[in-house]
Design a protein that fits this description.
The protein is of the alpha+beta class. α1 (33-44) packs across α2. It is built from 5 helices and 11 strands; from the N terminus they run βββααββββαβααβββ. The longest helix is centred in the first third of the chain and has 12 residues, at 33-44. It has a 7-stranded antiparallel sheet, with helices on both faces. Strands 2, 3, 5 and 6 form a 4-stranded mixed sheet that branches. It has one domain: Alpha-Beta Plaits (2-Layer Sandwich), CATH 3.30.70.
């Protein structure tokens, strides 16, 4: 039975906030657990208030391969007529919002085969709009292969998918250049791991509640690493996540 679901996160802009409060809205350098669960929940039509369904999705293991790092960018948003803290007038608030430009990720989800199959089917015909951190940041290509294919489902564990899945880069010029550099380029990875893993890092991005005004998160531990970009991973045609 399938145990992993491989997805392609490709968009001109993506934003994966970790401490997105107040006037400074940050972004992580790769998709967060909360962000990936949000994409799955939107596809499945899971309401923000459905804590049990959110918990099932959050229990899935997550592994990320960075196929293109992207560039960290910043823009400014101006909001007028914001009430003052004293309630005696209004003010204009300027916020700084960070995002990743031209980033590309292989997102591998591992766990309950039935839930993964449901998620794959829902991503093919999502209930609600899918976006990567902000509603304007929508995917530019399918999250996995075309209808009628395996939809990214695999029997392989997540770490094997990270090592063997075709590179998602679409630019044929870049792919041709890397053909002559077998194993020289390494792709960064970030994967869920047990807390006692050597070098484990703590991330506070596991969604507990998505309710507007009462969002809550828990922590997880991740291991960062890399896998070599081999010639076998560079497809001759357009790559997909199937």
């Amino acid at each position: 039975m399938p145990v992993s679901l491989a997805l392609c996160f490709d968009a001109p802009m993506q934003s994966w906030g970790v401490r997105s409060h107040g006037v400074i809205r940050d972004t992580a350098r790769e998709p967060t657990k909360s962000g990936v669960v949000g994409v799955l929940a939107a596809a499945l039509g899971v309401a923000r208030e459905n804590d049990a369904a959110i918990a099932r999705l959050a229990a899935l293991q997550l592994a990320i391969r960075v196929d293109r790092e992207g560039v960290l960018e910043r823009d400014f948003h101006t909001t007028q007529n914001v009430p003052t803290t004293m309630g005696t007038g209004h003010r204009t608030v300027v916020s700084e919002r960070y995002y990743l430009a031209d980033a590309l990720f292989l997102v591998v989800i591992h766990g309950d085969p039935g839930l993964l199959a449901d998620a794959a089917a829902a991503l093919a015909t999502p209930r609600w709009q899918l976006f990567f951190g902000r509603k304007a940041f929508v995917p530019v290509r399918a999250l996995f292969g075309a209808p009628g294919t395996a939809h990214g489902l695999s029997d392989a564990p997540a770490e094997v998918v990270l090592e063997r899945h075709p590179w998602l880069e679409l630019d044929s010029r870049i792919r041709a250049t890397e053909h002559g550099k077998t194993d020289r380029l390494r792709l960064r990875t970030v994967s869920d791991c047990p807390p006692r893993t050597t070098g484990a890092e703590v991330r506070h991005d596991v969604p507990v509640r998505f309710t507007q005004g009462d969002r809550r998160h828990a922590t997880r531990t991740v291991a960062t690493g890399s896998v070599p970009l081999t010639s076998e991973m560079i497809p001759a045609g357009d790559p997909s996540c199937s």
